[in-house]
Write a structure and sequence with these properties.
There is one protein chain. This protein is α+β, with helices and mostly antiparallel strands and about 450 residues long. Helix content is about 15%, strand content about 35%. It is built from 6 helices and 30 strands. The chain has a 6-stranded mixed β-barrel with strand order 3-4-11-5-10-9. Strands 15-16-19-28 form a 4-stranded mixed beta sheet, with no helix packed on it. The two termini are about 40 Å apart. The N terminus is likely disordered.
Length: about 450
């Protein structure tokens, strides 16, 4: 055989045969949408404007969570959030040969999806749209398949490539009227591991969207689901990662450091300082609900008395699961009465006179910029006390330091500012989330 042909043949075999996940798992970059590594990044936008935009997205996202709480089975909504509202991105490749994509990471999402050719209707996309005809490992799934049955809303259409099986078609609508419709299929997903060796996983179920419209951004191609449903990436990786993933969110978004997300044994959170709390799923959506019992300010305990009705569908009991932990929401949102109680106690501990936020967004701000003058807050979850240092509970807004929390009259959310500099591990087998104080900035970008 000619050497060139031999090389080509071996190269094709490497492309077709996915590399197995190593025993200790793998780690990839979790890119903040405002970092220079993000396709969203605009150097002409000031840091304060980027912050303002993030805060607006945060309020919009929580509004969608509120729609979640009023979900009824007659709605077509498959996800309560708007698809361009996430804060973190994952870059990966789909197909063989692999095509690079940028997907919004959603810790509540199930089915991952990307835009596909041919387009009935596609939103503007800066990168190349995935063409399933060019992937040797792409396979449409029939209507009778288990993934198709797992969808809450699907239809059957036409016939598959073999001319017999009818193709499963998914239909996802979002709370802001955005939508994606397409074929349910499998293909190879390839992740750029921090070890320098890409990890390829075959037969990942995803949505190949041929009809997509709404508030999508041209910088992304779709969504990757990290929720607890059977079609999420975490569930599909299954035994190969032991149902575990973790992330570490950096406090400063710059060109030197990036957040990380790990899967498998690399995601195990252990050692001194680790605390763990159970999570539950509630209702129709697979968001991770924690049980917050109280908030500690100094020696004061603020009773967290939000009452949750029994939910026999999810197996939870009254009072369990009263706050969502979400990497896509910036601020932490607390029920209005609890927030007012927290505000009152902080006012007694902080001797500085509170100021009004000129932008009218934050409820509690101070002119004193010495962070050492501010107390830490301890969130007492069921079985776990998580101390949040002042550095992540207060942040700079112009010349003021403001509390990175806000009141809500509906769903409470533990946002990503409160998660910074913690290694946070999700164990879907044990149904628990672990926290460990960590300097996440040690995760330097590979050169």
């Amino acid at each position: 055989m000619h050497p060139l042909l031999a090389f080509t043949f071996v190269h094709l075999l490497l492309l077709i045969s996915p590399t197995k996940i190593e025993a200790d798992g793998f780690t990839v970059d979790l890119i903040h949408r405002d970092s220079p590594q993000s396709p969203f990044y605009d150097p002409s936008i000031s840091k304060s404007d980027r912050l303002a935009n993030a805060i607006r997205r945060s309020f919009s996202r929580v509004a969608r969570f509120n729609e979640l709480s009023r979900y009824t089975p007659n709605n077509d909504i498959q996800s309560p959030l708007f698809p361009s509202g996430g804060e973190y991105l994952m870059k990966l490749s789909i197909g063989t040969p692999p095509l690079k994509t940028t997907l919004l990471a959603d810790t509540g999402g199930d089915l991952s999806w990307t835009q596909c050719r041919p387009c009935v209707k596609c939103f503007k996309q800066n990168s190349t749209i995935f063409d399933p005809k060019k992937s040797w490992t792409y396979k449409e799934l029939p209507c009778g398949s288990q993934p198709c049955k797992a969808l809450r809303k699907s239809t059957c259409k036409g016939a598959g490539k073999n001319g017999t099986a009818r193709i499963c078609e998914y239909r996802y609508g979002y709370a802001d009227k955005s939508y994606t419709i397409g074929d349910v299929a499998t293909d190879t997903f390839t992740f750029g591991s921090s070890s320098g060796r890409p990890v390829s996983v075959g037969k990942i179920v995803f949505g190949c969207g041929h009809n997509n419209g709404g508030t999508y951004n041209a910088a992304t191609t779709g969504v990757i689901g990290l929720g607890g449903g059977s079609l999420s990436l975490v569930r599909q990786l299954g035994d190969s990662i032991g149902g575990k993933f973790s992330y570490c969110l950096v406090t400063n978004v710059d060109d030197k450091f990036t957040s990380k997300i790990s899967f498998g044994d690399k995601a195990v959170v252990s050692g001194p300082g680790v605390v763990s709390t159970p999570f539950v799923f509630k209702g129709k959506f697979n968001y991770y609900y924690l049980t917050l019992e109280s908030i500690i300010v100094g020696n004061k305990r603020l009773g967290y008395e939000t009452k949750m009705p029994p939910d026999t569908r999810s197996g939870s009991v009254s009072g369990e699961g009263n706050i969502i932990i979400d990497s896509g929401t910036v601020l932490t949102f607390l029920p209005s009465r609890i927030f007012a109680n927290l505000e009152s106690h902080l006012g007694k501990v902080i001797k500085e006179q509170p100021m009004k936020d000129p932008g009218g967004v934050f409820k509690l701000c101070y002119r004193d910029d010495n962070i050492d003058h501010y107390p830490s807050l301890t969130f007492k979850f069921k079985g776990a006390e998580v101390e949040l240092p002042a550095l992540i509970t207060f942040f700079q807004v112009g010349k003021l330091l403001c509390l990175a929390m806000a009141p809500t009259d509906d769903v409470a959310v533990f946002g990503n500012l409160s998660q910074e500099n913690f290694l946070i591990g999700y164990d879907l087998v044990k149904k628990q989330i672990s926290f460990k104080p960590t300097n996440c900035s040690k995760n330097k970008l590979a050169s």
